[in-house]
Write a structure and sequence with these properties.
About 35% of the residues lie in helices and about 15% in strands. It is an alpha+beta fold and about 600 residues long. The chain folds into 3 domains: about 5-10 and about 10-395, Alpha/alpha barrel (Glycosyltransferase); about 400-485, Sandwich (Maltose phosphorylase, domain 3); about 490-595, no CATH class. α5 (about 125-140) packs antiparallel against α6 (about 145-165), α5 (about 125-140) packs parallel to α7 and α6 packs across α8 (about 190-205). The chain starts with a strand and ends with a strand.
Length: about 600
């Protein structure tokens, strides 16, 4: 069973058409412009000297690599000559400056040539991983294999240094990512050395004393002995995705079980309601998992890349085993914790995604709260190009197929090409999801058995679920309508999540909602929502998902600091917007978890 390639699905309308058009028309160009201005593309010339501006950084290659991967995905749907020209020029520089032995990293080649593979946290293998993924995507989209050949040569060198000669100062990557990339390279080319190198890095992690720096990079014990997640959550997500992919490729049930336990630990104990992970932002322990149920709101870090890494982990788990819990998390992330990282205009970004913003506290205590306004580029700018590569291939999560059985994991107005036992067919989804939960499926060209995920938030549906999916037999030319009632749900957290005791989050379908001060005034924490009050679902052209107006109340402002409790309340109509659109209309307070009566 394999996921259908993203280019088999064309988004035709609705929510994801908004974002698909945005990444093609705005975001990809905006990220390129900022990377050009900051010298990231010039770094590939490997000619920087002291006194010149834009001193290269050790992980800049990865920023550009993710951008190339993203524009490759765009080009696979519709060729983008302007972007391809930029990519071709960059690839020419990589080929020109790559060492004869295969090594390439623009920073180390120019800035620290004597320290190649001497600094475990130098991000050399991490950047190589992203270049490998870019090479695969670019070759598939354009037929141009120059970067792919360069990266295979690079893999040969890394294999020699780490596996054969053992001449590096460390044994496994400091920042994981190359493991997943190597397995994708093996999947694409069947190059055995890529599989062997990935296995080496995965199976030996935690076994070498000189690699055991801290919990932050998952090296304290061998990976097969992991019982819970710890440390840097982006590194963990990429690593766990690779472990899941390896388990699937090698049919390793024990390794898959380890992955499943880690997935459950994240999603049942250490994940925000938006799908964000890694709240810590303190010094050397930034963007890391904390202990179970430690999920604050004001100082939540929840890096955009971390949500993406978790989605990739869930994707590989779903590839190995059909279970709606994996697809549910992908949906949660895609509609909330990942998409919130890019502005509705497509050209500004958040690195971190808190669950609450109090501007008074923010201005006083910046160290422990993220920015309250989006920016066009960061010094550490891994998130913007990650958004580009995710949005340009968002269809990757929609379908998988096993002969004539087609699994629908995600919903979008779209048309998808199928091959059913040698017969070409088309599966059409018509929907305005998430405005409504009505989804019409029509198949043309062949008979199929369609298995459709019933989301965890849906409490009313027709049919019998198996692993979270209902089964529909669709004959050629037939249609089926699925209705998922889009009720407003008040979500409560586990009692151990002390920050949210007595408070509730509002969800409608897959979308988490929040209140902003710009709509609801000051003191958002004092607002109480009336559970049985009137509510109205409104289509607001500013947001790609509906807004909600709902009855609430708040206390009057008084002069006294403390007073005897009374029940005087001002009736209000509270406005909730999709969390994905927070902080798009100026600096303002924001809150997800609220009081409900």
């Amino acid at each position: 069973m394999k996921h259908l390639h993203f280019s088999d699905t064309h988004i035709k309308g609705g929510f994801w058409k908004y974002y698909s058009d945005m990444v093609r028309n705005v975001t990809a160009k905006a990220v390129y412009d900022r990377f050009w201005e900051t010298g990231r593309f010039d770094a590939f010339r490997c000619d920087w000297e002291e006194g010149m501006k834009n001193r290269p950084h050790r992980f800049w290659d990865s920023d550009v690599a993710k951008w190339i991967e993203g524009i490759a995905y765009l080009s696979e749907i519709k060729r983008e000559p302007e972007f391809e020209k930029i990519a071709d020029e960059t690839i020419e520089l990589i080929e020109k400056n790559q060492y004869e032995n295969g090594y390439f990293n623009s920073y180390y080649i120019r800035i620290e040539p004597d320290n190649i593979f001497k600094n475990r946290d130098g991000h050399e293998l991490y950047t190589t991983g992203h270049l490998i993924e870019a090479a695969i995507a670019y070759d598939k989209a354009t037929g141009k294999d120059k970067l792919l050949k360069c990266m295979i040569k690079n893999v040969d060198h890394i294999y020699k240094v780490f596996v054969e000669d053992k001449s590096a100062a460390f044994n496994t990557p400091g920042h994981q990512e190359i493991e997943l990339a190597l397995l994708k390279l093996y999947d694409y080319t069947k190059y055995e050395k890529a599989l062997s190198l990935a296995q080496y890095f995965i199976e030996n992690r935690g076994k070498f004393e000189n690699d055991k720096v801290s919990h932050n990079d998952q090296t304290m014990i061998p990976l097969r002995e992991l019982k819970e997640v710890d440390g840097h959550c982006v590194r963990a997500g990429y690593l766990f995705a690779a472990m899941a992919k390896l388990a699937n490729l090698t049919h390793d049930e024990k390794l898959f079980k380890v992955c499943d336990n880690l997935f459950n630990d994240i999603t049942e104990k250490k994940m925000s309601i938006t799908g964000g992970i890694g709240y810590h932002r303190f010094k050397n322990f930034a963007e890391a998992f904390s202990y179970a149920y430690d999920l604050p709101n004001l100082n939540a870090y929840n890096e955009t890349c971390a949500s993406i890494a978790l989605a990739l982990f869930a994707h590989e788990m779903l590839e190995a085993k059909i279970d709606s819990k994996y697809a549910d998390i992908i949906e949660l992330i895609n509609f909330n914790g990942f998409i919130s990282g890019v502005s509705l205009s497509g050209d500004e970004f958040f690195y971190s995604n808190p669950l609450e913003i109090d501007l008074k506290k923010h201005y006083r205590d910046r160290e422990f709260q993220g920015p309250s306004q989006r920016v066009k580029v960061f010094d550490c700018s891994c998130c913007p190009p990650n958004v580009v590569r995710m949005l340009s291939s968002i269809q990757r999560f929609m379908y998988s197929q096993d002969e004539n059985v087609v699994y629908c994991h995600q919903f979008a107005d779209s048309e998808t090409k199928l091959n059913i036992k040698g017969i070409n067919a088309v599966l059409i989804q018509k929907t305005d999801y998430p405005y409504s939960g009505k989804i019409d499926f029509t198949v043309k060209g062949a008979d199929i058995k369609l298995k459709i995920r019933i989301p965890y938030w849906c409490t009313e549906f027709e049919g019998t679920k198996e692993n979270g999916y209902i089964t529909v037999d669709l004959k050629k030319g037939e249609s089926f309508t699925l209705n998922l009632p889009m009720n407003i749900h008040f979500i409560e957290a586990n009692p151990n999540v002390q920050d949210n005791s007595g408070r509730y989050a509002l969800m409608r379908g897959p979308v988490v909602y929040c209140m902003e001060g710009i709509d609801n005034g000051e003191n958002l924490r004092d607002i109480t929502i009336l559970e049985n009050g009137e509510s109205e679902i409104i289509k607001d052209e500013y947001f790609p998902a509906p807004v909600i107006l709902i009855d609430g109340e708040r206390r009057e402002n008084v002069n006294s600091l403390y007073k005897i409790k009374d029940n005087k309340r001002i009736k209000i109509k509270a406005k909730f917007i999709p969390y994905l659109g927070y902080e798009n209309r100026g600096d303002t307070d924001m809150i997800i978890w609220t009081q409900v009566k």
